[in-house]
Structures are given as structure tokens and as C-alpha cells.
């Protein structure tokens, strides 16, 4: 099942009093069901915070976030977990070192009272391209790419409609990054997932996303289709600068 995401006037302030910082003044965007939407922009512009708000990892925000037309705040935790899951940047930090892959994958199934666990866990590993005997491995027995595959399997095992991807490949070796991106692209094609993907890499957007938003200081400066990258069709000065710098870097890289 695939689902649209609608974010309206999302705003968050960290801290109180004179030290309070409005990290997101007001962010609005909509992502169609099955679309891959990128969030790019300078470090500290609030990209990860948007994902943390949507997933309710942070809940002190105001505004409205709807997934499949349902307000995420009014959804019971279980239902929310079955609609939306998040994959983090650092597969080393996101897996508990003392938990086997079996424990990592069985926990959500147990919490949600889902039966047939063994078959589901095996299928999840097959889906992410890992051998089923990896169920008995621990994180230190896995490569970075294999760990990220396990993290993706954990996100998939409840069969969500929306995946929030927070720089899912930036902690990985360049050679492994493409494998994980291809896996994510294939899964979206097969399952119709909606992706919201934070990245600092416009080459990733170009490879994966249908559209993307350029963020600066907690604000979306411009939303563009992927096709706008090649000819730098952005009109906002910051978006133009970001895309221009990326094209220049890519040009030098190839030259
Ligand atoms: N829990 C928090 N308390 C206080 N400030 C926070 C908190 N979480 C994030 N921030 C601040 O919000 C701003 C945006 O952070 P965020 O991680 O969303 O940026 P980002 O665009 O994802 O950056 P990067 O590309 O470096 O990951 C930063 O200035 C950060 O310090």
C-alpha cells in the first residue's frame, strides 16, 4: 500500500526564553503516493529535523502532518509504525551491538503481535539481498553496507507505506553507496513506497528522486523536478548556487 504525505506549516523551536531557536519557521510540502522526494540544503538547514517531526521522534512541533490523509498525531503508535518508518544515516549507531539480526527483526513483529515471524524475517533478509543465515549474526559481524541492509529490513518488516531516509548512504564507502541506492530504488519500484530522502548529495537526488526541495535556514527556498538539476533551472539564488556548485564539482570529478 502506498500513501501520500502532506506537511503544512511545520514549525519547531528548540529551547525556551532568549536562547530559543526557531529551527523550522514554517515548512510546507506535499509528496505524492509512490513519489521519491528529496530534501537538500546546507548543513543545519533543518532537513533531518523535518524527518524527525514527521516520524514523531520529536513531538514539540506545530503544524499538520498527514500520511494517507491521516493526521500523524492522532494515529495510535501501532498504526503509525505501520504507515511510516525511518532509516538513519549511521548503520553502526542504529543497530544495538548486542542484538542479533534475529532480535532486531523479530522485535517489531513481536510488539505488533504479528505471527509467522520466522518466514517474515527470512523474507525481509531476502528482500534486502542478504542470506537468511545472517539472522544469527551480530552487528560486528557485518560490513557497513550489510548493516544498512539490516536497518532497511527492520524498516520494511512492518510493511510501511512511507520510508523516511536520513542520508541513508553517506556513512558508507563510495563503492557500497550505489548498491544501497539501487536496493532502495528497486524496493520502491516493487512495493510502491513513498520516500522522503534527506541528502547533501545532488547526484543522489538525480539518481533517486522525482522532485526535491532546497532548504536554507529552516525554509524551503524552492521545489524542483529532478530534471532541473542538469541545466540548473533553479530560480532562487541559493538553490542556483547549490546546484551550480554540485555541477561544477561533478564536472571536475569527471574531468
Ligand atoms: N534537539 C535539538 N535541540 C536543539 N537544537 C537542535 C536539536 N535538533 C536539531 N537542532 C538544531 O537544528 C538545526 C537543524 O538541524 P538538522 O539536523 O535538522 O539539520 P540538517 O539540515 O539535517 O543538517 P546536516 O546536513 O548537518 O545533517 C541545527 O542548528 C541543530 O543544531
- Uncertain spans, ≥5 residues at pLDDT below 50? none
Global outline: globular
Mind describing the biggest β-sheet?
6 strands, mixed
* CATH structural class: Alpha Beta
GO molecular function, one term: ATP binding
InterPro entries: AAA+_ATPase, ABC_transp_ATP-bind, ABC_transporter-like_ATP-bd, ABC_transporter-like_CS, P-loop_NTPase
Pfam families: ABC_tran
Family: Belongs to the ABC transporter superfamily.
Any overview of this molecule?
GO terms for molecular function: ATP binding; ATP hydrolysis activity. Belongs to the ABC transporter superfamily. Residues 5-242 form the ABC transporter domain. The protein is α/β, with parallel strands linked by helices and 255 residues long. It has a single domain (5-93, 162-254), classed as P-loop containing nucleotide triphosphate hydrolases (Rossmann fold). Helices cover 38% and strands 24% of the residues. It is built from nine helices and ten strands. It has helices spanning 47-54, 77-83, 91-94, 101-111, 117-127, 144-156, 174-191, 202-208, 237-254; strands at residues 5-14, 21-31, 36-41, 62-67, 70-71, 84-87, 162-166, 194-198, 211-216, 219-225. The strands form two sheets. It has a six-stranded mixed beta sheet with strand order 6-7-8-3-9-10, with helices on both faces. Helix 7 (174-191) links the parallel strand 7 and strand 8. Helix 4 packs across helix 5 (117-127) and helix 6 (144-156) runs parallel beside helix 7 (174-191). The longest helix is centred in the last third of the chain and has 18 residues, at 174-191. It is globular, with a radius of gyration of 18 Å. The model has no long low-confidence stretch (mean pLDDT 92). The protein binds adenosine-5'-triphosphate (ATP). Adenosine-5'-triphosphate (ATP) binds at residues 14, 23, 41, 43-49, 200.
Amino acid at each position: 500500500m502506498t500513501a501520500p504525505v502532506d506537511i503544512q506549516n511545520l514549525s519547531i523551536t528548540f529551547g525556551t526564553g532568549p536562547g530559543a531557536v526557531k529551527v523550522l519557521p514554517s515548512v510546507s510540502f506535499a509528496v505524492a503516493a509512490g513519489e521519491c522526494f528529496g530534501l537538500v540544503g546546507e548543513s543545519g538547514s533543518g532537513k533531518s529535523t523535518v524527518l524527525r517531526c514527521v516520524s514523531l521522534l520529536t513531538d514539540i512541533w506545530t503544524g499538520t502532518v498527514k500520511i494517507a490523509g491521516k493526521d500523524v498525531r492522532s494515529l495510535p503508535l501501532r498504526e503509525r509504525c505501520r504507515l511510516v518508518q525511518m532509516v538513519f544515516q549511521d548503520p553502526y549507531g542504529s543497530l544495538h551491538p548486542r542484538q542479533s539480526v534475529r532480535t532486531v527483526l523479530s522485535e517489531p513483529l513481536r510488539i505488533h503481535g504479528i505471527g509467522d515471524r520466522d518466514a517474515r524475517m527470512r523474507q525481509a533478509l531476502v528482500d534486502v539481498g542478504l542470506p537468511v543465515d545472517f539472522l544469527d549474526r551480530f552487528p560486528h559481524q557485518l560490513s557497513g553496507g550489510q548493516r544498512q541492509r539490516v536497518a532497511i529490513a527492520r524498516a520494511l518488516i512492518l510493511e510501511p507505506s512511507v520510508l523516511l531516509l536520513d542520508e541513508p548512504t553517506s556513512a558508507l564507502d563510495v563503492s557500497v553507496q550505489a548498491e544501497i541506492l539501487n536496493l532502495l530504488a528497486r524496493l520502491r519500484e516493487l512495493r510502491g513506497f513513498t520516500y522522503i530522502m534527506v541528502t547533501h548529495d545532488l547526484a543522489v537526488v538525480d539518481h533517486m528522486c522525482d522532485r526535491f526541495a532546497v532548504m536554507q535556514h529552516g525554509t524551503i527556498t524552492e521545489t524542483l523536478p529532478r530534471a532541473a538539476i542538469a541545466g540548473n533551472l533553479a530560480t532562487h539564488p541559493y538553490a542556483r548556487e547549490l546546484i551550480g556548485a554540485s555541477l561544477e564539482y561533478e564536472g571536475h570529478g569527471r574531468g
